[in-house]
Design a protein that fits this description.
There is one protein chain. Helix 6 packs across helix 8 and helix 6 crosses helix 11. It is built from 11 helices and no strands. The protein is mainly α.
């Protein structure tokens, strides 16, 4: 199967399984909603019935925010201009490439860990749905296969975290320190930015490679019923090594789709100027639409990669036409 066929068929399978989108969305909502209520309570308690409430209706009052930041505690202290609109995208990307995801507030880390557990539980059932689209599916089958593969997926999660930490410990952080020392006396800002961008590019390529390898390892666990997480990872790495053009080309297409989603959200993401219920509702709808779009892209990755893996390994999915299910060279 060609890269484009895997890409398009993967989207088709995701669109045909809206229940999967709903389950992942509900999992993210269950994690985020309690934290949002805590932040809301902290802001409401600080604003009270003061005159600053009127100022906040027209935009973010930086004078008020300075006072709030000094007094806020717990998860409410994570609120700031950087979490409003498209700035959240920039902040998350910066934290990822700088290896500072684990430096976030411990409550956010706990929430992120809980979401990862939700996702790790569901991914086995999700991949079963994508790998066998022609078989009858039900909620019982989804959760049954999710439970069956959970511990194997959990071991892969632990391995992936170790790989990510190793990338920053032995590659990214030493390179950032080298660039900082090498450009200490450089007066041209463009030179510093160029070297920093190169470090970010290398870090991004390593992270993408690790992500791709673990995606195919998860697919191997489900499609080939592998029990060993280490052997599944080796299978994923071997699959990429044997089909570098197809796997990297598909990953690049999927990354492009993800970038398009982020670009459009960044272009239309509302700021802090909502002053009535109508504009607040519009901002909320746009934000939730972006969350759903991100989940769709996440599922799109798995569906397309599962189709490519099955075609290359000649694992029939019972629904693909003969021409589409031919093994890769």
């Amino acid at each position: 199967m060609s890269v484009w066929r895997s890409f398009l068929f993967g989207l088709g399978r995701v669109l045909k399984t809206p229940s999967l989108l709903c389950w992942v969305y509900l999992a993210s909502l269950a994690v985020a909603l309690p934290l949002a209520m805590v932040v809301r309570g902290g802001i409401a308690a600080h604003v009270g019935g003061s005159l600053v409430e009127q100022n906040l209706r027209t935009g973010l009052d930086l004078d008020w925010y300075g006072e709030f930041a000094e007094e806020a505690s717990g998860v409410a202290a994570t609120f700031g201009p950087e979490v409003i609109g498209h700035m959240a995208l920039v902040q998350n990307l910066e934290r990822l490439l700088d290896g500072k995801l684990l430096a976030a507030h411990r409550t956010l880390l706990a929430a992120g860990g809980l979401y990862l557990l939700f996702w790790t539980f569901l991914v086995g059932g999700i991949l079963d749905r994508f790998a066998h689209p022609g078989e009858p599916h039900s909620r019982a089958r989804l959760f049954g296969h999710s439970g069956e593969f959970f511990w194997r997926m959990f071991r892969l999660l632990i391995l992936s975290v170790l790989f990510y930490l190793a990338i920053f410990r032995f590659v990214a952080n030493p390179l950032h320190e080298f660039v900082e020392q090498a450009t200490r006396d450089v007066t041209v800002e463009r030179t510093v930015l160029l070297w920093t961008a190169l470090v970010y590019l290398l870090t991004g390529l390593l992270l993408a490679g690790v992500s791709m390898a673990f995606d195919y390892a998860k697919i191997a666990v489900v499609v080939e019923r592998r029990r060993s997480a280490v052997l599944a990872l080796l299978r994923g790495l071997g699959f990429i090594a044997r089909h570098p053009g197809h796997t990297c080309g598909l990953y690049l297409l999927l990354l492009t789709a993800a970038a398009v989603v982020m670009f459009f959200y960044g272009a239309i993401a509302p700021g802090s100027g909502q002053s009535n219920w109508a504009t607040v509702l519009v901002a909320f709808v746009i934000g939730q639409a972006y969350v759903l779009a991100r989940i769709l892209v996440k599922l799109w990755f798995l569906a397309s990669q599962a189709i490519l893996f099955q075609a290359a390994a000649n694992h029939p999915d019972r629904t693909a036409p003969a021409a589409a299910s031919a093994p890769l060279p």
